[in-house]
Predict the structure.
Amino acid sequence: MINNRFFGRRRPEPTRPIPPGQYLEDGFPVLSAGPTPRVDTATWEFSIEIGGEAVGSWSWDALNALHQTDLHTDLHCVTKWSKQDTDWRGVTIDTLLEDAGVAKPTGFVMATCDGGYTTNVPAADVVDGKGLLVHTYDGEPLAPEHGGPVRLLIPHLYLWKSAKWIRSLQFMDNDAPGFWERYGYHMYGDPWREQRYTGD
Amino acid sequence: MATGESDSKLDWQIATVTAVHDESPRVKLFTLKFPEAAAKRGFFAGQYYDIRLTAPDGYQAQRSYSITSSPDESDVIELAIELIEDGEVSSYFHEVVETGDPIELRGPIGGHFTWFPMLKRPVLFIAGGSGIAPIMSMLRHHRSSNSTAPALLMFSVRTEEDILFREDLEKMSEGDDSFDLMITLTREAPKNWHGETRRIDQNMIDTALQTLGETPDRAYICGGTGFVEAIGNHLLDSGMGYDAIRTERFGP
């Protein structure tokens, strides 16, 4: 349906194309289903399970002692905003798997967080450099409301997949819906295919 | 599954604007009528719709707007749209849209920030500015379903003219023993103002909790990011459980 008197502001002009239905945002909006949980790095621990079996866990110090990766990327939130040219530092899931001494898992993965948030993605979407645990944004410690001390970052999917306050990744054979996916958000969430909701 | 709709595709629909109302200097209310009652999907109070505008050259813009009407209304929904500086969709709605215009939309969407009459326990609502929108739907549903769940709204706005839905809210609180209303003006209050005149703080929340009588099973907070972060922290400090607090934030 055409809105004859709608022309759009289209500003600022994106430096690169942005996915359909998105607009460019300069700020960094916060979207969370609950209050910001209080996370203490002194007791924080991150773990990986494969097929129900714990294969590795890392303290805050242990995470920081691993090889660190810098990532310059764009973000796309299902609530329609995109943010270009963001800078992150953290540890790739590949590095964690390597540190645990396990092979690249297949199937799917469920991310679980402080506060109980969960989200699901295919395993292939967090390996080969595609997924990181990040603790630094724009050179500063990641703010609590943005998921600090540590969040998952999978920038090629809508941002609800980049779970804040991450505590574990559970690799599993079958896909299962996470928090928003149970409310009708897309199981995969590719912004370029505009997979916002079930059936998109 | 809270939406009950998540196994089916959310198709774009066309609804017609049947009323436009200036609710405040920056917020307009739009009543949208679906072609027939059956075309309006059932929704839970707190859910929202995506609106899509398409320019003659094919350029599109989408935004989400909360439903402010009660799910009990048959074939219409009411949306509150705040004029955002440089907002391409909100300015179109404020400057161009009039009664009779068709609007493309799909929904309802969301499902966590929802209240429904089956919830019988005390509930605390805290809204900042246009964050009242999804909560208004919940309060209207509370009313239209004759819910006896004790409910209290803390509503923080800058000035008196920013009190959205004031008449409705005051009428509801006068005619309903189970609903209490606390409005606070944070920037400027008229001389005859009897309500609060500061930002919502721990003391004000303690007063609200005392008025409510029991610790609420749920709290719904909606407003700008800073507002929701601050209130969320106050509620955690009050001893409310993390899981009892549901939030919706807007703005960068």
